[in-house]
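Input.
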Amino acid sequence: MKTLIENARYEFHKQLFTTNTLTVNNKGVASNADTSSIPSKKISKRIIDILVKEQKHDVNIAEKILGQTLGKQFELLTMNFLNNTFPMLQNIRPGDWHILQLGNNNRLKTSDFEQYEHLAYLNELTAENARLAAVLGNDYLVAPDVVIYKDLLDDDVINNIQPVVNDNVCKMTAIRKVNGGKPVLHASVSAKFTMRSDRAQNSRTEALNLIRNRKGHLPHIVVVTAEPLPGRLASLALGTGDIDCMYHFALYELIRAVEEVGSEDACEMLDTLVKGKRLKDISDLPLDLAV
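Output.
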């Protein structure tokens, strides 16, 4: 019997194909490949071949979608995968969870969360004062691709099993709705279809901004990608202190593809990332977010 996450992973891959996010052109080059890199083209094509054969997906012969559309589609499909999995883990991480792609919801900003509400005030100050803006810059502004948060709790929910709070205590805790706070950001997900050097640095910048500009609890900070080259994955995944972990859209298939068509260096690098717990499969993400 297939499990919830196994089915969601299959559907995630299926949607990558049906939306033409993951395609192969008439020259046999996958849409997540770097056309200037032979190893990238070989590994990405082999991943698709494995998915087509073993999971019975159909790949469309089409040119790569241009512009930001491809990245936005990958963000949307990543959000859908999380919506189909993480909120279902109520026995592990209960709550009324919300998972949103910020690009499709302009009313919601990072400053709408408890840990970052002060950024809205800071933004107003720098907008009105050019000299202050020159001193502070705008590095404090953060824009995650996908966010996860849950509603604040009513007192009757908190006191469901036994009396926990009343009007005499817990007057400032963020999770209590009666205190009038904002939702607490649970996770920030940076979804990058590929990991060219500039895109990798964007994810790192987002992570560092979330870390140094927060007040209170640090949210989970993760990256999801379809980048095929282990070396480029390592440019962001290696090390600690900024992102929690990187998640590959098809790690099992990537490992097999690199073993079959990759170089010895690529195999060693991928092995280092996996054994070092810096690179995991997309299926690991929902349970990791439940921590």
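The mean pLDDT is 89.
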